[in-house]
Structures are given as structure tokens and as C-alpha cells.
Specification:
Blueprint lengths: L2 E5 L3 H12 L4 E5 L9 E2 L2 E5 L1 H7 L5 E4 L4 H13 L7 E2 L4 E2 L4 E2 L4 E2 L4 E2 L4 E2 L4 E2 L4 E2 L4 E2 L4 E2 L4 E2 L4 E2 L4 E2 L4 E2 L4 E2 L4 E2 L4 E2 L8 E3 L4 E2 L2
Parallel strand pairs: 1-2, 1-5, 2-4, 6-9, 7-10, 8-11, 9-12, 10-13, 11-14, 12-15, 13-16, 14-17, 15-18, 16-19, 17-20, 18-21, 19-22, 21-23
Antiparallel strand pairs: 3-4, 23-24
Length: 207
């Protein structure tokens, strides 16, 4: 039996669980330190305990995925799981369009309607959210979140733990650094250095 643990009993967690069911996972259990208690449910799926409970029972699961939108928290949990040699699942909704030449790292989730084009590279623990698009030769670091409806043109490079907001667009060949936030609906036409928040059309540093 394919048995999946999901860390993060949130709304995003329900999306991830639904994808897992669609992809044929037969048993799905949630674990969460903050939301719900053991014996309750997140949507249709049971909350079995907290993260420590999962680690103690990890050998009874096929794999785990971290369904937490916050890039920093997701990265810390994933890195701890990898250090313990616990396998991370990668989930891709069947309606997503993925080039056979694209690469997607472990622990990533690709949500319905997304497009990842040829020779794009996605790091581990990424969230490629609903109806987003990543064009040819893009390179995304680890623990990046591409929000619903965001679009990256070709040859865009995005650093670790950066977040591209809902409906944002990034011009071709743009370099976005680590831990960058691009606000909802923004249009990025210039490179963005590390640790910066940009918003607007065109995107400028947030004041």
C-alpha cells in the first residue's frame, strides 16, 4: 500500500492531499504542530499527530511531503527529514503539463493546470501553484513558491526560498535572488537582489 504522510494540516495541505489521491496514493495522513489535534480531520483526511509523531512512525510510510506555504518553515522541516534519510514525495497533478526534459526536485508539488516547459529546472520542496507557468530554461532554487496564475518567461533564474505572488509576471532572462518576495500582480522587468520585496508595474522595491 502506498502510504503518504503530509506535514501541514492547512488549506494548502488539502490541495496536496487531493493531488495525492488523484495520483493513486492509497492512505494519506496529516501531521501538524499547529493546526488541529490527533483524532480530528483536515477535510477528508485524518490528522494523526504532530511532526515528532511522524518521525517516530516514519518507517511505516512510503514517503512524506511538507505542505506548508511558508518557504522558511518548509525548508527547515524538509532539511530535517532529509538529514534523517526520510524520503520526500513529489506530487504532480495529472492536468499539469510537464516537459519530459524538465527536472523537478524531491518534495515539490505541481498543482492543477500548471505548465513547466522544456529544460526548466525546479529545486527541492517547491510549490508550483494552480495555473502558473514556467517557461523554457528557467532555473528555480530550493523551496521556491510560484503562486497561482504567476508566469515566468524563458531563462528566468530564481534563488532559494523566493516567493512569486499570485498573478505576477517575470520578463525573460531576469535574475531574482534568494528570499525575494514579488507582490501579487507585479511585473518584474529588472533583476532583483537577495532579500528584497518588490511590488507594482513595473516592480519596484516596496517602501
Amino acid at each position: 500500500m502506498k502510504k503518504l504522510a503530509i506535514i501541514g494540516a492547512s488549506g494548502h495541505g488539502k490541495v496536496v492531499a487531493d493531488i495525492a489521491e488523484t495520483c493513486g496514493w492509497e492512505a494519506i495522513n496529516f501531521f501538524d504542530d499547529a493546526n488541529g489535534t490527533k483524532g480530528t480531520k483536515n477535510g477528508a483526511w485524518p490528522i494523526t499527530g504532530n511532526v515528532s509523531d511522524f518521525i517516530l512512525s516514519s518507517d511505516t510510510y512510503t514517503a512524506v511531503i511538507v505542505a506548508i506555504g511558508n518557504n522558511e518553515i518548509r525548508s527547515k522541516i524538509c532539511d530535517d527529514l532529509l538529514a534523517r534519510n526520510i524520503p520526500l514525495a513529489t506530487l504532480i497533478h495529472p492536468t499539469a503539463t510537464i516537459s519530459r526534459y524538465a527536472q523537478i526536485g524531491p518534495g515539490s508539488v505541481v498543482v492543477a493546470g500548471s505548465v513547466i516547459n522544456t529544460y526548466a529546472s525546479i529545486g527541492r520542496g517547491a510549490i508550483i501553484n494552480t495555473n502558473s507557468s514556467i517557461d523554457h530554461d528557467c532555473s528555480l532554487g530550493n523551496y521556491v513558491h510560484i503562486s497561482p496564475g504567476a508566469n515566468l518567461a524563458g531563462n528566468v533564474c530564481i534563488g532559494d526560498k523566493s516567493w512569486i505572488g499570485i498573478g505576477a509576471c517575470v520578463k525573460q532572462q531576469i535574475i531574482i535572488g534568494n528570499k525575494v518576495i514579488v507582490g501579487a500582480g507585479s511585473v518584474v522587468v529588472k533583476n532583483v537582489p537577495d532579500n528584497m520585496t518588490v511590488t507594482g508595474i513595473p516592480a519596484r522595491p516596496f517602501q
